[in-house]
Amino acid sequence: MKASVPFRSSGVPFLSRTTFLQSRTELTVPQKVFFSRAKHAESPIDGSFSLRLVPPTLLAAEKEEAKAVLTLFLKKQGLSNAVAARTINKSDAFVDHLVSRLHSVHKSRYLVGRELTTLEIRDALIPYLETLLDEYGQILVDVVENFPDPPVKEKSEENVQKQPVTENSVASVSPSTPTVDSRKLKALARVSDVTPTGKLPSHIVYLLELGMELEAIRVVIRKFPAFAYYSLEGKIRPVVEFLLDLGVPKEDIPTILTKRPQLCGISLTENLIPTMAFLEELGVDKKQWAKVIYRFPPLLTYSRQKLKATVDFLYEMGLSADNVSKVLTRCPNIISYSVEDKLRPTADYFRSLNVDVALLLHRAPQTFGLSIEGNLKPVTEFFLERGYSLGDVATMISRYGALYTFSLPENLMPKWEFFLTMVYPKSELIKFPQYFGYSLEDRIKPRYETMRNCGVQFPHRRKLPIAWRNMSTAAQSFNGNLKKALAGLRRINLEGLRWRVFDAKGQVLGRLASQISTVVQGKDKPTYTPNRDEGDMCIVINAKDVCVTGRKMTDKFYRWHTGYIGHLKERSLKDQMVKDPTEVIRKAVLRMLPRNKLRDDRDRKLRIFADSEHPFGDRPLEPYLMPARQVREMRPRARRAMIRAQKKAEQQEQATTNTRKGKKREEAEAELSA
């Protein structure tokens, strides 16, 4: 049964609605009607724009854009990459028709000499292609390939359903290599010296001046052929200057263009700047745009619906507005993850482990880009097989969210094998999972060997009861000072913290304070973050035996005001050491800490004692090894006086020798004159 296609004055310019039976598909369109509709669509009477007024370079670029839009549309309909490429190579006439329609829709833009952006081209062509899909359905590919000729097709659906899928049929679908790469070869020819003048296009020369290698430009064009047809003044230069104004270093521009060349095809005033303003409303720090764009250039090419969907998911997981801002700034590539296919299943998986999803998203958002089957489950099974419970794994994840980002065979397994050679119990990894973040060869092995050679006693589970029994003895020696030593300890979350012991005996005050401030801030950890308090507990003993250089003991003064008129007090370092030597070290450390809200929390982790006794014998203490001194030896006043006396004696002896030599010279001269 044949279905006729009547002529209509509205709707699709060159195609019209068809009807066909479900049992047998047979389409025959009169060629005159089909051709007349195509001719009518390109007629200047219909308001179309003449292609002669468009420069050849711009016309070629628009054809590439139209091909890209058509390819994307076909892929969304379920076609594979090979089938879509074959269809594009057979539809040159249809692509020309799309360009002609583009000129008809945006006639006013061309009259004022303005180029269309990639998003404007998509907005003009995609609704038109959707209309064709509604009209022709399954035979849209035949319509595109046979334009402007009518598609004639007779196939039995029963035969199609019963036809077996063989290797030959699959092989016949794949196009030949020359036809697939023809568009890429045309684009690559623009960056080669094949022109009669022997010069490269102006935009290629501009990219080379920016520091982009010619081979890197070819790689970009192979991935995105339309980039070869972008104009310098209309698209590339404005985007590059805009990035430079944002603070992006010039040497980072080639990397950004290599990652996302489509940025040059987006309008600044209508797309890029409004998208940035929208992201700033969602929480992106406007001062960090240079870092954000360098980390993830495709961020500015996503639609607002995609951006808002991801942000809504973050709020749904329980993140605050400040935390959402930090996540988008530190890990902008989370926008690229699908909410339903990636983020939500990952969140459900961590919930099954009783992990705080909001805390994990805030600390390690990159974890949500990992595969559940390929990355997350193998790491979980790795710890379960080694005797840890699900609760232990959840605790380790909460304390160190980046744990799942490490490679299982290259990172976790070797460090686990070395951990077994140490005398630590397995529970130590629950307290300090950051162990897996250190380098095995550069950090773990050398430090472990150094501590063992120094005779440091490592904590062992059999030693813990002895420490508990010694607790009462240690407390008895702190009858008057125990309350001060334990003050504020309940306000500190001690889970996962190490107890570091510093022996101040013979140490220089400034050098000791700098090491303590590093540990109490957590700067010695790979997970250090300035806005979080992750430092360890610091116990300083023998504060009365700390040393200073020079004459600081008498020349250094501490001054404070009581609040009353004329009550400016001062006390020398020597007097302070007699009154309370612990305050000397405390003041030195506090003056090395940042003056922010975390300062008081870090001060609570600092416990200083004048002698070697302290009430924390029940804790797994770790002695801190001070680095070797690289400064001159301290010289007390008596030693300096002795050195001055020796120098004075040497000078006097030298003067006496010179006097004797002078007398002998005078006597010799007198004899000669006589």
TrEMBL record:
This is Transcription termination factor MT, chloroplastic. Residues 169-178 have a biased composition (Low complexity). It comes from the Eukaryota. Residues 151-160 have a biased composition (Basic and acidic residues). Coiled coil: none annotated. It comes from Sesamum alatum. GO terms for biological process: DNA-templated transcription termination; negative regulation of translation; translation. Keywords: Ribonucleoprotein, Ribosomal protein, Transcription, Transcription regulation, Transcription termination, Transit peptide.
